[in-house]
Amino acid sequence: MRKIAIASVILALCGGTFYVVSAAEKAAEPAKEAAPKAPIECFESRKGASEITQKELKPGWPNVKCSPTTGAALWYGDPFDGTVPMGKMPQLDIPEGKAVVKPRSEKLALMPLCGVSCHNGVGPKFTPPTLPKDKKPAPVPTMAAMVPDLANLQHGRGRIWCLDCHHTTQRNKLVDHYGDPVSFDQPQLLCGKCHGDKLRDWRDGIHGKRIGEFVSTGKKRWFTCTECHNPHNVQDGARNRGFVQLQPEPSPQLPRGMANADHEKLHPIPH
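RESULT FIELD:
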């Protein structure tokens, strides 16, 4: 019995020593960093063309809140983050710095590439520019692969083609009514050539989207035409009109204790 007791004491001492050494080794190991979370991204106005990545402007204050249901931007911590002055607009007198836009040229990496390689307007082939004789040029496989919408260009229902919108020699620019180049950041100067009524409504705040300061004289971010509309495929599938419909957000939850929202159907002023 005495031998068994001694063996038990020795075994317990060894086990305790092993535990202390293991704990010390674990404490000495550098703390493993948690795997970085994938960045949260949502779209502002058109899915696939106006994505924004969530980031913290300051601790606990994100630049944007994304909808977990639709993936759309719901709320802005800073509506002017990443914006630049919109620039002068015809028939629009806005104080300097009160109208801003988010530049999109940097997202259109394909266009500058086209502008300096195949379509730079110089060289024997392009002096003067050799243009097709009609508005149905022979398809170019490379272009068709890069911009799939070109195979079935629905904009204008066959009445327009590429160079009605893109500058003849500066392919990284659009073109206005006078043949002058226009930045991709100001597509309204192009779209207004044909859609004058929509340009007027957009200018007056009836059409389109703006965020920022609520008062009429406040600073606002203006959303430009191509942030909401796909210029190459403006007709939406079977509807063959309008633009791609957005998935609606879920209806707001009723406050606790309220059975229904029938009061919303009542108008304070009788008609």
